[in-house]
Amino acid sequence: MKTLKFTFALLLCATIFACSSDDDSISSTEGLEGQKGELTLKFDNGVGDSDFIFGTTYNKSNGESFQLETLKYIISNVRVKDSEGNTFMYPINDNVFIINEADGNNAGEIYITLDNIDAANYTEVTFGVGIDQERFALGAEGQGDFLDEASDEGMMWSWASGYKFIRLDGTFSTATVTDQPLSVHMGSVGTSLDNYREVTLPFPNTVLVRETTSPEVHIKADISKVFDGSTTANFADGYDQVHTDVNETPIIADNINGMFEVHHVHND
Question: If you average pLDDT over residues 186-213, what whole number do you get?
Fold first, then answer.
């Protein structure tokens, strides 16, 4: 019996050592110079702990409620930082995306696949919500194909007014009204009002970009925080129609900044 227990202990130690060695081998950065890989950001919109579904009624903290028929927002300037403090910025000409809930798969997930990423061990991702002033200053000709895409998606007012960073259309109800029009089209207003915000999200475990692996980062976006974020935005106080107001739009922009989190990471 003692011999059996000793043999089992040796096998267990050998297994643990082998697994540890494999993990070390996978996470090692030795020999990665010049290698490229692929990284996918998977956006998953929800409301609190619930999946987002068009036409579903969601309650706010103050008893108001809403339902949406349109949910879109712009993501840009995506970059990742590795374990050694180096930052990889995705090429600027391709670094702007529209996350449209209507484009989601059966699970409601929208994928952004970034290719030719430097192979490394990444610990966090940063992206902007909307269009920064530097990109806007390039003029209409400097926007590339994205200008037409944004126009086709209804994510612009006019060139002078600029892009809509987020677009929510639907209805809302309060204690005094029912099923009234809801329209949140928040963005910067030309160069006079800058509502571009950036968010940095740490990864719960290291993202291993390699030639032979294509990691996925699952990012959850809690749409309820558009209204119940760092500041409560009540429909009864005028937040049922948010477009270019200098007081309302920055509050929505700041609230959106806090609606994202990395839920989990897949490295295979």
Answer: 95
Question: Does residue 147 surpass a pLDDT of 90?
Answer: yes
d(CA 37, CA 31) in angstroms, rounded, equals: 14
Copy the structure tokens of residue 180: 């009234």
Strands 216-222 and 36-47: parallel
Helix (H) or strand (E) holding 20: helix 2-27
Contact call for residues 54 and 141 (beta carbons, < 8 A): no
Three-state secondary-structure class, residue 50: strand
CA 253/CA 225 separation, integer angstroms: 11
Distance CA 250, CA 244 (A): 10
Give φ, ψ of 166 to 5 degrees: -140, 145
The pTM of this model reads: 0.88
Query: In angstroms, rounded to a whole number, what is the distance separating the alpha carbons of residues 78 and 109?
Result: 18
Structure tokens at 47: 């409301």
DSSP bridge pairs for 202: 124
The 8-class DSSP code of residue 167 comes to E
**Spatial contact of 218 and 264, defined as CB atoms under 8 Å apart:** yes
CB atoms within 10 A of CB 129: 25
- CA–CA dist 84, 87 (Å, integer): 9
